[in-house]
Amino acid sequence: MIAAPHGGFIGPVKRSVTIAGHATSVSLEPVFWAALERAAVAHALPLSALVAHVDALRIAQDEPPNLASALRSYLADNPEHFATNMRSGRISVDSESHSQ
């Protein structure tokens, strides 16, 4: 059975991160922000540093995607950063917005 995500469908939230000393706005859905925060903790990095690492990998590509797409792709390739609700098997969402 297909069901709506826990917490419902929530659109992108714009947050500002600092990359190479410059503030950059990134719009991602809260589920991706939460996963990025978990990834940063797992790598013992501030969120901005993790985003900067992904950005460096992104711009090294022949045809780099936008930063939001690169971050989603990074997370899709590293699904362990999503918190799984074990009873339902669905990804849980922390709908609170944080700024970094």
From TrEMBL:
InterPro entries: RHH_dom (IPR027373), RHH_sf (IPR038268). GO terms for molecular function: DNA binding. It holds the Pfam family RHH_4. Residues 12-76 form the Ribbon-helix-helix domain. It comes from the Bacteria. This is Putative DNA-binding ribbon-helix-helix protein. Signal peptide: none annotated. It comes from Sphingomonas endophytica. Keywords: DNA-binding.
